[in-house]
Amino acid sequence: MRKTASPKTYRVESFGCQMNVYDGERMAEMFDHQGITPAAEGEDADLVVLNTCHIREKASEKVYSRIGRLTKGRQNPPLIAVAGCVAQAEGDEIMARSDAVSMVVGPQAYHRLPAMLERAVDGHRTTDTDMPADAKFAALPSRRKSGPSAFLTIQEGCDKFCTYCVVPYTRGAEISRPYSALVDEAKKLVEIGAKEITLLGQNVSAWTGEDAKGRAIGMAGLIRALAEIQELVRIRYMTSHPADMDDALIEAHGDIAKLMPFLHLPVQAGNDRVLKAMNRSHTAESYLKLLERFRTARPDLALSGDFIVGFPGETDAEFEDTLKIVDAVGYAQAYSFKYSPRPGTPAAAMEDQVAPEVMDERLQRLQARLGRDQLAFNAASVGKICEVLVERQGKYPGQLLGKSPWLQSVHFTGPKAGGAAIGDLATVELVEPMGSSLGGRLV
Ligand code: SAH
Ligand code: SF4
Ligand code: F3S
Fold first, then answer.
1. What is the average pLDDT across 62-71?
2. Is residue 13 domain-shared with residue 119, that is, in the same domain?
3. How far apart are CA 173 and CA 160, in angstroms?
4. Were 433 and a residue from 233, 242, 265, 378 both cysteine, which residue would form a disulfide, CB within 3.0 to 4.6 Å?
């Protein structure tokens, strides 16, 4: 590698889950802190971070093709850092295969990017995929940027080892960030403009800590503490595993007004044999019972989930059970995926991998049901008057976009959108279902 000039502009490209988005924001803040500025839209950056995801199909191919596009035909190609879960899983291969990459950094080591960058400018390549638990948060500069809706990572890693999943390998063991650091970060986010905070974790409700008085608390206790921050008006969290949902959290949904009526609780499949082979600790029945308890505490709770079709050995009849659980729950929204064998996971070595055409057909059928239910949920919301947190301008002049309490996208227009502005909680009547979103009218 040659020496290069210090970069003046940067761009962070994040793929994957919200936790990667959060990490990407924190990396951007680090560069801002060093006096590097974000590249304008459409402009080449001197430094590009590819913040990658390894959860499904073709993760690394996407990285190589992006690197190709960033460097092809450019006299002064950018400095490239590969970060995120592909970096953690395949860092050495990336370094060996692509000269254009000068930094490879895992999700637990990105606070060391500034030092790696200095070395890169001097012509040295560095890989850092260490997993020092929690060290990065203390080393990062304090928060500087926030829109009305902010992410806050409270928990990282996963000890659940579902047999299909790479996360326990790419993100490491479950750790909880300390209570005081979280309260401080939340207050800071509110100070710089956040009205809503979504608590994040690969298993967010596995969070545990000690409050200011040294009492052991879980995520419900943390939510209660954050609800005390006056200018914070909405709290959400994701993603949860059914195994970590406790009574205190169910109760919190019943009595904390700032905790939004939305729960993302992936079930993955509806058949108990498949669930067992996935190493999920719930059955279809225990999952449904759990949801019932949440709905009793908060009757208008909107539910969301994740599904995998075509897990090794899944038969047609077993897949039908997934459709049954969908019918039984009535999800407001959901994500569904074809099973993808991930290198190094137990399921990848299982026999009876399901044929791609079978997976395609199952996915289509599942998505048709989920789509139907989302439409029905949105149609049933018509006529409701609710608060919409305005997040940005819409496509048309005067149009504003935001989220309902149930996490539906709502767009509305008014005379100058009625004077409503980004960051406001606008009172809106939901008037028209439009596919995955809703049209509204200012009240
Ligand atoms: N921690 C969360 C979600 C993690 S990954 C949970 O336990 O629910 C997000 C989603 O990606 C998963 O819920 C699962 O539906 C999907 N997923 C993970 N690994 C996958 C794989 N190998 N193939 C297909 N989908 C997968
Ligand atoms: Fe992956 Fe399962 Fe952990 Fe979720 S709980 S991150 S699906 S191993
Ligand atoms: Fe992807 Fe890593 Fe998140 S694999 S889903 S970026 S934890």
1. 94
2. yes
3. 9
4. 378
Q: What's the Rg (C-alpha) of the chain?
A: 23
Q: How far is the CA of 165 from the centre of ligand 1 (A)?
A: 6
- Tell me whether strands 437-442 and 425-434 are parallel, antiparallel or unpaired: antiparallel
CA–CA gap between residue 323 and residue 360 (Å, rounded): 15
- Which of 381, 402, 417 is the C-terminal boundary of a domain? 381
| H or E stretch at 379 | helix 356-381
Q: How far apart, in whole angstroms, are the C-alpha atoms of residue 408 and residue 402? A: 8
| CATH code: domain of residue 287 | 3.30.750.200
For 346-355, how does the pLDDT look when each residue is reduced to its tens digit (9 = 90+)? 999 999 999 9
Q: State if residue 346 touches ligand 2 by the CB under 6 angstroms criterion.
A: no
Strand, coil or helix: 341? coil
Q: What's the chain's average pLDDT? A: 95
Angle among Cα 31, 34, 36 to the nearest 5 degrees reads: 60
| Structural domain that includes position 345 | 261-381
Residue 113 and residue 31 share a domain? yes
In whole angstroms, what separates CA 378 from the centre of its chain? Answer: 23
Same domain, 94 and 148: no
Nearest ligand to the CA of 341 is 1
Answer with the one of 182, 217, 234 that is the final residue of a domain: 234
Q: Is 100 domain-assigned?
A: yes
Query: Which CATH number do you get for residue 414?
Result: 2.40.50
**Bridge partners (DSSP) listed for residue 217:** 209
Mean pLDDT value across residues 400-424: 85
Least confident of 132-136, 276-280, 297-301: 132-136
Asked if residue 160 has its Cβ within 6 Å of ligand 2, the reply is yes
Residue at 355: amino acid letter: A
Distance from Cα 111 to the centre of ligand 1, integer Å: 26
Dist. CA 314 → ligand 1 center (Å): 17
